């Protein structure tokens, strides 16, 4: 599905999030750089926007995705960002990562985990490749809790997003799927429990933009 919607992904993202996605990605980067990191794995990187946000001299970033067309766009964009030497875009599966245990200081995922076929497998893989004391930062959709924001959310996910999918990507089904998966994905305290069950500790949740997304951060235990 992501191979099909790749050419219009960035445009729809911008309209769909009313341009808030940029500030969410910046927050992910700020959380990552609260620690001293030299190596980062960006999982389900798509067209690379979180990886670009984190690009810095002397920090090695590997950005993986299993949709080649999304990666092609990321590589094309990296020419403008002048980040060729810093970000290494690779085709890989989040649920079977090809990296050794304890490889990265930080792992990030933006709007990726809810698309995993096996969520626990994907989370365990990210845990495995993190160095002890390494940090994972996950940006993912949530469902707002107040009545007013629930109404706005309902209209947004059921009308605006499928409309944008049809008008721009000529594919309302893909965007209906994205809305539905957002509605059904475990978020907040439930997702925190899943992170704890995977082995992560110190889980923190930051709610953004009336609760439509959450940023989760958590650490790998020292002795794992
Ligand atoms: C909604 S996009 C998010 C892209 C980007 N991280 C962002 O913030 O815009 C989800 C991405 O997850 C990727 N994806 C889904 N399952 C995956 C898996 N098992 N391994 C690697 N990438 C995966 C898709 O190909 C797609 O590019």
How do you describe this structure in short?
This protein is of the alpha/beta class. It has eight helices and seven strands, in the order ααβαβαββαβαααββ. Strands 3-2-1-4-5-7-6 form a seven-stranded mixed beta sheet, sandwiched between helices.
Structural summary, described in words:
This protein has one domain: Rossmann fold (3-Layer(aba) Sandwich), CATH 3.40.50. The chain is built from eight helices and seven strands, in the order ααβαβαββαβαααββ. The chain has a seven-stranded mixed β-sheet with strand order 3-2-1-4-5-7-6, sandwiched between helices. By secondary structure, the chain is an alpha/beta fold. β2, α4 and β3 form a beta-alpha-beta unit. It starts with a helix and ends in a 5-residue tail after the last strand. The site of S-adenosylmethionine (SAM) has 18 residues, from α3.
What structural class is derived from the secondary structure elements? Answer: alpha/beta
Oligomer: single chain
Please give the largest β-sheet.
7 strands, mixed
Task: Please report the distance between the alpha carbons of the first and last residues.
Answer: 36 Å
Which molecules are bound besides the chains?
S-adenosylmethionine
H and E string:
HHEHEHEEHEHHHEE
Q: What's the CATH first level? A: Alpha Beta
Number of strands: 7
Strand content: 15-25%
Broad shape: globular
In spatial order, strands of the major sheet run 3-2-1-4-5-7-6
Query: Helical segment tally?
Result: 8
Indicate the CATH topology: Rossmann fold
């Amino acid at each position: 599905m992501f191979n099909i919607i790749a050419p219009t992904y960035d445009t729809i993202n911008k309209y769909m999030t009313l341009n808030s996605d940029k500030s969410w990605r910046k927050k992910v980067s700020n959380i990552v750089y609260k620690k001293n990191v030299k190596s980062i794995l960006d999982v389900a990187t798509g067209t690379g926007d979180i990886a670009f946000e984190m690009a810095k001299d002397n920090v090695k970033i590997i950005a993986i995705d299993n949709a080649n067309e999304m990666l092609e766009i990321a590589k094309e964009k990296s020419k403008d960002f002048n980040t060729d030497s810093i970000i290494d875009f690779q085709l890989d599966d989040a649920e079977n990562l090809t990296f050794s245990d304890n490889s990265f200081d930080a792992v990030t995922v933006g709007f990726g985990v809810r698309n995993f076929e096996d969520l626990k497998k994907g989370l365990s893989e990210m845990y495995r490749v993190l160095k002890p004391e390494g940090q994972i930062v996950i940006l993912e959709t949530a469902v707002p809790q107040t009545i007013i924001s629930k109404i706005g959310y309902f209209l947004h996910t059921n009308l605006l997003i499928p409309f944008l999918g049809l008008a721009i990507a000529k594919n309302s089904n893909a965007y209906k799927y994205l809305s539905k998966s957002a509605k059904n994905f475990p978020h907040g305290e439930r997702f925190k429990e899943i992170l704890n069950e995977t082995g992560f500790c110190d889980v923190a949740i930051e709610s953004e933009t009336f609760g439509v997304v959450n940023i989760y951060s958590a650490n790998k235990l020292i002795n794992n």
